[in-house]
Amino acid sequence: MAKGPAPGHGPLTGVRVVELAGIGPGPFAAMLLADLGADVVRVDRPGGPGLGIDPAYDITNRNKRSVLLDLKSDEGPARVLDLAERADILIEGYRPGVAERLGVGPDACLARNPELVYGRMTGWGQDGPLAERAGHDIAYLALTGTLSMIGKPDEPPTVPANLVGDYAGGSLYLVVGVLAALQHARAHGEGQVVDAAIVDGAAHLASMIHGMLAAGSWQDRRGANLFDGGCPFYGTYATSDGGHMAVGPLEERFYAEFVRLLGIADAFPDRWDLARWDDLRAAVTARFLTRTRAEWTEVFDGTDACVAPVLSLTEAPHHPHLAARSTFVEHGGQIQPAPAPRFSATPVSVRSGPARPGADTDAVAADWDVPGLRPPSHD
């Protein structure tokens, strides 16, 4: 007999997560766990983490609850250990050694809860010559070679926001790591430390490219390859109104439809003649400049030519496909990306807006049975 949907709000319902507040990839990883249904308690510090946005708009703190603790006080670390004792996962993003000095490092937490998964999010990792150094997304990408691939060959590398390092190479690898370790903990009763370093994740993201490089099908320079803008039928082109179209018809039948609709079907019979790629790019460039983005969008609409308009952040939620799928949702007056991926039996949703620092102390104290979280009564 088929089982009915699990109660709660996502496949991680019942999983308890402690997040020691930080910036960037740690909060995003905790948000993803919260989106998937975990009960995430964020331990905020007095004064905030620095570089943070107004808590009312910080979407990475949605679906969480917050308690306020000063980890430099006498009682703060003890309360974190109380939470860790009742948690399945703990996430921190300090420099190596800081959590230990605060009294909430892996040894202290695992002593209280041997099945705890202790996730550590850093740029450089827990060891190595640079482990103690400060850094940000762009430096981690730079050293892994990943940044060198992005941008035009005659210009400096392009900064891909902080998506490739912090979130793809950092947050997503941390989430995969702690969930894999949670599976092990539940099967064997053994917790462990997960060392998620952005340099490791960002390097791992380029695995296919390294394989192509070894095979001789990728050149170790920008703008000379199939996926880095070097190919004239895989890239972006300006339109007459200053907009852009994204082009990617790699397969033969898709390319045939692309050049037919673009109006250059007979100009370049062999698209793999690399000696003529500059000519082909010039022809594609010239054609796209003859119409607006809206006009080209209409030309390619409903086809398999693999062409799409480049939309802005504010335009994207209104695209018919994304609107039909509710890829973006509104909650508390904020338009934001919906939780992803989707689940048939345990659907996920935006259940609550950004957690305000300390706003959930009483509820967490009761739910997690940590009465010490409440400030002492002065009655």
Provide a quick synopsis of the model.
The protein is of the alpha/beta class and 379 residues long. The protein contains 13 helices and eleven strands. The N terminus is likely disordered.
Helix and strand layout, with pairings?
Elements: E1 16-20, H1 25-35, E2 39-44, E3 64-68, H2 76-86, E4 89-92, H3 98-102, H4 106-112, E5 117-122, H5 137-144, H6 163-188, E6 192-197, H7 198-205, H8 207-215, E7 235-238, E8 244-247, H9 252-262, H10 277-288, H11 293-300, E9 307-309, H12 320-324, E10 328-331, E11 334-337, H13 361-367
Parallel strand pairs: 1-2, 1-4, 2-3, 4-5, 5-6
Antiparallel strand pairs: 7-8, 8-9, 10-11
Strand order of the largest sheet: 3-2-1-4-5-6
Tell me the series of helices and strands, N- to C-terminal: EHEEHEHHEHHEHHEEHHHEHEEH
Distance between the termini: 56 Å
Q: Give the count of helical stretches.
A: 13
Main sheet? 6 strands, parallel
Quick one: overall form? Answer: elongated
Number of E strands: 11
Radius of gyration: 25 Å
Share in β-strands: 5-15%
Low-confidence stretches: 1-6
- Mean pLDDT over all positions: 94
By secondary-structure content and strand pairing, the structural class works out as alpha/beta
- Helix fraction, binned, reads 25-40%
